Amino acid sequence: MTSSEPARRHDLDALRGFAMLLGIVLHGAMSFIPGVGVFWGVQDSQSNGLFGILLASIHGWRMPLFFLVSGFFTAMLWKKRGFRPLLVHRFKRIFLPLLLAMVTIIPVMLIVSGYVRSRPTSEPTSTAKERDANALRSGSDVRGGAGIDVSAAVVLGDLNTLDAYLRNGGDVDAKDAFGSAPMHVACLFGRADAAKLLLANDASLEVENNDGATSEQLLALDWETTAYIAGLVQVPVDREELLMGRQRIAAAINEKTGRTAPVMTAQANGLEGLIGLLFDVPVFHHLWFLWFLCWFVCGFALLVKLLQTLRIPAVSDKWLTSWLRYVWLIPLAAVPQYFMASSQYAYGPDTSIGLLPLPAVFAYYAIFFGYGAMYFGANDQAVTVGKGYWWKLAAAVLILFPIGLALQGPDRTSGRILFAVMQVSYAWVMSFAMLGLFDRLFRSQRFWVRYLSDSSYWLYLAHIPLVLLLQFIVRDWSLPSLLKFGFVCSVTTVLLLVSYRLCVRNTWLGALLNGKRYPGRDKNTQMPEPNLQVSSPEIQESN
């Protein structure tokens, strides 16, 4: 580490806030992706596949870049204050907000999600029937465009919609965007009545999903994995009701085929069940990254102490800022990426929302965090890593990202390796390009940028319940999806900015999230920090 006083990095502060605000865009797009109804609380009537591409393009680099910046500011805070102040600061800015959100925002999110899922479409019956008929005539009967969301109908137990779909010639074994047939969904969530209706319409029990599993095999899927999937898609499940539903489905299969299908056991299997519970049951939802940061900060402190004790020299700057960084960063990150995104339509890193981080996901983000910490030591004031950001952006968006999408879901090992390399190459090149772009645009402090950066923590913590409600409100509007998407994102941002100004910024909650504010700071951005060289937003990257 350099002993010189580190200069303030307003560009990284702005970049951190931008990455968090993109979370509103990412989640705002969810309801407009065809076939997302079973995984998200709302499925819009005007869905478009381009929103799936938008989501993948953001998801592929946003959180890797965030953890890179987090590692940078963690190292900065340690260098200026030491280990104890670092841990105290992160405890107050990360761990305490996480605990508070777990008993406030997360319950509200689950309540809102359950409510919007339970509400049927508000379209007039004649309009809905005409839309479904047109979809069937056009062959769009697989959860796409204006088609019927068959999987969502199964999950919600909407037998009328499911029956109408089948009576109008819908494919009983049609796979959704995630490779599951309606029977897979029914068996997974124990929807016995829907399963009986599908069996009565000759649903095949031999169809396999993207993981090679038949619907019968999902009847035996353990509770921990089922609960994890249900948490990801925000489908409420009760263990006893699930078991009873699966037993009824097994009985219906036996009656129709004479086969005896195995069903999930009532009790977990000791240690294996406990491990599954810790890894798979959703706990943190969209706040998982705060939990990861707690692990990373503690790991950073331990690792630095170890390196100091062993007197291991720092990595040479040329391996951190020159083109040589790609030689080791890309293959290193490709290893954990190889073990993620195994389904056909997955792109980018997985998400780990359980109490224990999934190893591959944890290792992947630890690499970006670790590089950020080492990058701080390189004292790259000229932002060498971001030079040529314009061609980096072009290469990432026009070459690496399309190739990665084209390689989705390979079966062979060689294909999986190339897929992983393309994905992490996109993440690294986009990250360095954004570092260069934001250095070019926001090297000097600007009040409005500082304000948005301060507010971004609150906006990300609180946005999902509001996004879901707004998506539900516009769900059946006969307007272009792009207009509705813009409405959801803009109204969410404006309302949360107002709440930040009135209820958060100058309150105890604002102090918890962003540190203590000082009189006149908002009006005069050139005022020096009292007794502090590094402003709280610069080292407060935990949003």
Summarize the structure.
With 543 residues, this protein is an all-alpha fold.
List the helices and strands and how they pair.
Elements: H1 10-29, H2 50-59, H3 62-81, H4 83-102, H5 105-118, H6 125-137, H7 150-156, H8 159-167, H9 182-189, H10 192-200, H11 215-218, H12 223-233, H13 239-257, H14 270-280, H15 288-310, H16 318-321, H17 325-338, H18 359-377, H19 389-406, H20 413-442, H21 447-474, H22 481-504, H23 508-514, H24 536-539
Give a verbal description of the structure.
With 543 residues, this protein is mainly α. It has 2 domains: 10-114 and 283-539, no CATH class; 124-221 and 223-267, Alpha Horseshoe (Serine Threonine Protein Phosphatase 5, Tetratricopeptide repeat). Helix content is 64%, strand content 0%. Helix 12 packs parallel to helix 14 (270-280). Mean pLDDT is 83; it is low at 1-5, 124-146 and 522-543.
Provide tags for this entry.
single chain, 543 residues, mainly alpha, Serine Threonine Protein Phosphatase 5, Tetratricopeptide repeat, 2 domains, 24 helices, globular, disordered N terminus, disordered C terminus
Largest sheet features: none
Q: What assembly state would you assign to the polypeptide chains in this entry?
A: single chain
Strand content: under 5%
Low-confidence stretches: 1-5, 124-146, 522-543
Q: What is the terminal separation in angstroms?
A: 26 Å
Total of domains: 2
Form type? globular
Mean pLDDT: 83
